[in-house]
Known about the structure:
The complex is a heterodimer of chains A (about 290) and B (about 180).
Chain A: H1 2-32, E1 36-38, E2 61-72, E3 87-97, E4 100-107, E5 112-122, E6 125-127, E7 134-144, E8 161-172, E9 177-188, E10 199-210, E11 215-225, E12 238-247, E13 250-257, H2 264-267, E14 281-291
Chain B: H1 2-21, E1 23-36, E2 41-54, E3 59-65, E4 70-71, H2 74-84, E5 92-99, E6 111-123, E7 126-139, E8 142-151, E9 172-183
Antiparallel strand pairs in B: 1-2, 1-9, 2-3, 2-4, 3-5, 5-6, 6-7, 7-8, 8-9
Amino acid sequence: MMKNIILLLTVIFLVHANAPAQDVDSLLNSATSPKTDYESATFKATRIINGHSIEQMKERQLDVRIHHRFGPVNSGPYELWGLDQSNVFFGLEYGVTDWLMLGAGRTTYEKTFNGFAKFRLWRQSRGEVNMPVAISAYAGMDLFSTKWADPSHDNYFSSRLSYIFQVYVARKFTEELSLQITPSVIHKNLVPEAIDNNDIYAIGAGGRYKVTTRISFNAEYFYVIEPTISGRARKPNSLSFGFDIETGGHVFQIILTNSLQMIERGFIGETSESWQDGGIHLGFNISRVFTL
Amino acid sequence: MRTCTILILLVFSLLTSGFSQEKYLCKNGHIWFYSHTPLEDIEAHNNEAASFISPTTGDLAFQVLIKSFKFKRALMEEHFNENYMESSKYPKADFKGKITNLDSVNFLKAGVYKTAVLGNLTIHNKTNKTEQNGTIEVKEGKLYLKAKFKVIPRDYDIEIPGTVRDKIAKSMEVTVDMVYEPYKK
């Protein structure tokens, strides 16, 4: 009898004493675990190399960008393999909200001004909201301001304009590896010759691999889906490689590319040099972010 | 004899179940840290810290999700997660320990009690033994825990590169402010 009581008491005691110890961890886990875990930092900067990445400035952040490309390596020792030449882009890009970024810039190529809006549509996430990829959209316009070759000709202001539409579909596969696909459409109001198309369709692919927490290796390619035009040689596609180096508030990108241009209308469809011929440009992008 | 044992059993089971219900849980605690250098002040707040106190055993546990620390600057928050805390690899930080001066805290009587805590703090997958002081206030059935202590990033294998060394303090001031409610299963 006494034995039974002792046994019973022991059991009761053990049950009461053990229960809380077991579930403190799971209790705290369930209290701190987010319902939806959103992926962040798919790329280090808003550019993979020349083209935009899925990233954008968050609310009240201003990105001051300076991009620079030297001349082609095949220009030889007289041009110091391109280093005597200089092409720049500078831009101000601002996060109005976390999902809307506006930007404006100016580049050497055909003295072009550009403006754009970039919209975050979906974020990659796990949990209650499960989304395998992130999707953003871009709408931009640019205006070249070089003097007309023939001022006696009827030249319209609207001829200076081009429109760019892109969609970014990106996925951060692992902490190191991120890939992105970029369908693009460019409409030019004016093309050099009658046989040239006003609309250019292209598909871009880019990615990054993080070498260390602060350095990543990037690659980017834009394939132009050109309708066959008789008597016209196919232009090279844009292919670029680079490293992102992040130092606190700066992201420094050092680049090798066959595109001299730093705006979408330029490097998609107007790239004229090729890697095989040594038409390779050394370049860099510098991004400095300020919180306003 | 039989009634006696039944009575003892009843009293004992009531007593133990009474004890087991006397636990306190905090789900939305406020933990924040502050880094001061002449060049830059940095602070980040986490309002989703969870904690558990068992007055009977003196057990004290904390857990925070690193991603829930909010900074004023979005880029800083990104770097905090990506470069310093590596929060996708090590999503949580926690503390598990005991109140060492349990005798001097009366959880049934309103008042402010000085509390000493000893335990293991795990940040960035690195665990260090730590001893800290704070206060527990017992008021209207709730517990209010407050503590302030230093955490040295280097102790937790968090590397701060030379370029930003002047902007990030050698030691962070961590403030803990929790409100616990009685927890019943």
